[in-house]
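Figure 6 in text form: structure in, sequence out.
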């Protein structure tokens, strides 16, 4: 009886050992804080892999934080408070020209998808003389979009109208409805809502046709030096996330529903088509051409921008590794 009991106990212990071993060798997820800078589809290339668990699959426990406006988001990443984020590449150029070390490591979206939306009584751009136009932050994608549009207008900021920093899309929408603004640079999803509520579209800025870095994955060179493998894991997951977004419509639309706080399926599917299928690239390589657009715009007023090269603001090493490994090709085969 004693021998049988001993044998049973021994078998039980041997059965449990593999589970204990697996628990001991299971890699621990690395924590990483990450900021997104807008409530809009330009940020969805991070939202979707986050919600799908793809960052966790690649060893990262991401803490997503919202900081409204690319200019403010750039300041937070440059300070080191949060090491990575998604915001306009224009802010990366501004930071570097001022002595910072922000760098673009992947593309979110290289298209301007904003509209100038005004109160109902404003019928044309010229009527904004003496009025207030809202953006999220100076140095943000909304600010750059307004700057590019102004080049074609007879009225200019400072001289003819005031530009007001509002923080984000919800704040600009509220400012328009409450009368604190006469016009604002809104993204596509907020523009759809604005039209439904009786506000007026004055300018479709997407018709500018610019290859502009509206959203980019950004970190600092100093963070790459300290934590290169962390950035490597992020980029790997981000690239896989783009594949997931473009091939898994239902799951991705559900992510839009959560972050845009909207249950209208027709609206959500239209936003998915616009951003994920049309504007977000299949493979999110950093784009020198998009950075050149920023430098060309700034070069007229800033000799430092005129002398700079787009490659100074980009680090391609992680995509070079993925290409060499064949990771991207395997995803899409």
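Output sequence:
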């Amino acid at each position: 009886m004693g021998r049988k009991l001993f044998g049973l106990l021994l078998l039980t212990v041997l059965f449990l050992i593999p589970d204990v071993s697996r628990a001991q060798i299971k890699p621990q997820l690395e924590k990483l804080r990450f900021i997104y800078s807008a409530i809009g589809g330009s940020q969805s290339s991070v939202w979707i892999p986050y919600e799908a668990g793809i960052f966790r699959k690649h060893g990262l426990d991401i803490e997503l934080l919202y900081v409204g406006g690319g200019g403010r988001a750039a300041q937070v990443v440059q300070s080191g408070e949060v090491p990575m984020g998604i915001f306009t590449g224009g802010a990366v150029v501004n930071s570097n020209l001022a002595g910072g070390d922000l760098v673009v490591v992947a593309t979110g979206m290289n298209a301007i998808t904003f509209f100038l939306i005004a109160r109902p009584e404003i019928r044309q751009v010229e009527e904004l003389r003496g009025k207030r136009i809202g953006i999220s932050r100076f140095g943000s994608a909304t600010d750059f979009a307004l700057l590019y549009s102004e080049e074609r207008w007879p009225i200019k900021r400072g001289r003819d109208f005031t530009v007001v920093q509002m923080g984000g899309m919800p704040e600009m929408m509220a400012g328009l409805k409450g009368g604190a603004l006469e016009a604002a640079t809104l993204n596509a999803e907020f523009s759809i809502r604005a039209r439904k509520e009786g506000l007026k579209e004055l300018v479709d800025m997407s018709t500018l046709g610019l290859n502009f870095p509206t959203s980019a994955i950004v970190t600092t060179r100093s963070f790459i030096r300290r934590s290169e493998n962390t950035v490597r894991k992020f980029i790997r997951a981000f690239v896989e996330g783009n594949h997931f977004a473009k091939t898994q419509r239902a799951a991705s639309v559900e992510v839009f529903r959560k972050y845009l706080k909207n249950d209208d399926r027709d609206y959500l599917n239209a936003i998915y088509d616009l951003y994920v299928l049309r504007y977000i690239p299949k493979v999110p390589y950093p784009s020198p051409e998009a950075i050149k657009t920023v430098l060309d715009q700034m070069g007229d007023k800033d000799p430092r921008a005129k002398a700079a090269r787009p490659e100074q603001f980009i680090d391609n090493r992680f995509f070079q590794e993925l290409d060499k490994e064949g990771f991207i090709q395997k995803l899409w085969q």
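Caption detail: The longest strand covers residues 102-109.
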